[in-house]
Amino acid sequence: MAMTDVQVKVPEERLPEFYAMYASWLAAPAGTPPEPLVEATSGYIGSRLPAWTSDDGELARIVWGKLTRSGKNLVSALVDADGTPISGDELAEQAGIKNGKSGVAGALGWPGRHSFAVNRTWFWCWEYPDGNAVYWLDEVVIELFRQARDGK
Q: What residues contact 38, with CB distance under 8 A and at least 6 apart?
C-alpha cells in the first residue's frame, strides 16, 4: 500500500485525540468510516471498543509484540511510573522520543491502532490538568503490559 505524507494543523492540546481518531480511521476497512469517539470520562477518551480487563494478557502480548522500540520505551516508561501521571515532555525524555510532548502524542497512534486490531480501546489515560497533557496507565493495564514486557 502506498502512503502519502499529509500535513494538518491540530491544536497541540488535542493531539492525543487526533492521533486516536487517526488510528481508528486506519484500523477501519477502506471505504468505511472509523468508529466514532465518545465523550471523555475521567481521563479516558474511548471508542465503542471494550476496555482492557485483567483477562486480556494474551491481547497485551500481541500488542506489545507489534510495538516499535520507541513504542516499547514509551509503554515501559508508563508501566514503570506505576499509575503516576507523567507530562508529555517528561515521558518523551524517559522514552527517548523526539519532539517532546508532540512526539509522545504521535507515538501513541500506532499502539492505539494495534489495540483496535485486537478489539480493545487504547490502553492509556490522559487529561489536561493545566492545559498540558499528562499520561498514565491504570492498575489493570500496568499489570498486563508489565507481564507482556517481562515475558510472563
A: 45, 46, 47, 48
φ, ψ of residue 125 to 5 degrees: the values are: -115, 155
For residue 57, what is its C-alpha cell? 494478557
Closest CA to 143 of 56, 74, 73: 56
Q: What is the pLDDT of residues 22-55, one digit of tens each?
A: 766 666 667 665 555 544 333 334 456 789 999 9
* CA atoms in the 13 A half-sphere facing the CB of 81: 23
The mean pLDDT value for 47-69 works out to 91
Contact 137, 125 (CB under 8 A): yes
DSSP E strand boundaries for the chain: 86-87, 125-127, 134-136
Q: Which residue has the cell 500506532?
A: 110
pLDDT tier at 7 (50, 70, 90 boundaries)?
A: confident
CATH of region 54-152: 1.10.10.10
